[in-house]
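Dear colleague,

Thank you for sharing your sequence with our group. We've completed the structure prediction you requested, and as agreed, I am returning the results in plain text so they can be pasted directly into your records. Please verify that the sequence below matches your submission; if there's any discrepancy, let me know and we will rerun it promptly.
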Amino acid sequence: PVVKIGVLYPMSGNAAFFGDGAKKATDLFFSNFNEKDAKFKYEILWEDTQANPAKAVLAVRKLIDYDKADVILDAFSSVGNAVSPIANEKKTPHLTFAQDRSISTGFYNYRVVTSTKKTGQKMVEALKARNLINIVGVVENTAGTLSLYNGFISVAQADDSLKIKDTIDINPGEKDFNLILQKLNNINPDAVVISLQSPEVDIFMKKIR
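Please find the predicted structure tokens below.
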């Protein structure tokens, strides 16, 4: 039998780098895949979400109802949250690369991602190894970015050698970071821990450079 894998990734827009990298990795894997030793044949069905939950809803319904996908893969918490109730309704396994725990509700939804605490531990270790002690966080008010940052904070606050000087919150769609940059200059931290999504992270990184 053929196993149809429906993939909901951003193939265009600000987060296209994610989908482009995933497609190249998938193509590389299957170019070295030994079909003779495989129990099943696999068909990959790509759909472009542009990291947009509304587009993801339309795409996942097409993949399940029309293309008869056996399993759904996606990325980003906003997309995973939009897809998870549909996956449960349609009884289709759904694997998401996203940080928000609430996606993993129901029998059919699973997150395949390193825990936020483990990610936070690696970040703390990296900061300490570089002797970066005074830290400011810049975090976006979305489920995934908040989960990542909170994982870092839970580890950092338990470590006496790090000092969180401030956490600056921004809202999705923010484009003017001048006041935030001015605040960062006034605090003058050793490092800034950034938990933003595209396109905000792209704009912020250009300005901070």
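Summary note from our side: The radius of gyration is 20 Å.

Kind regards,
the structure core
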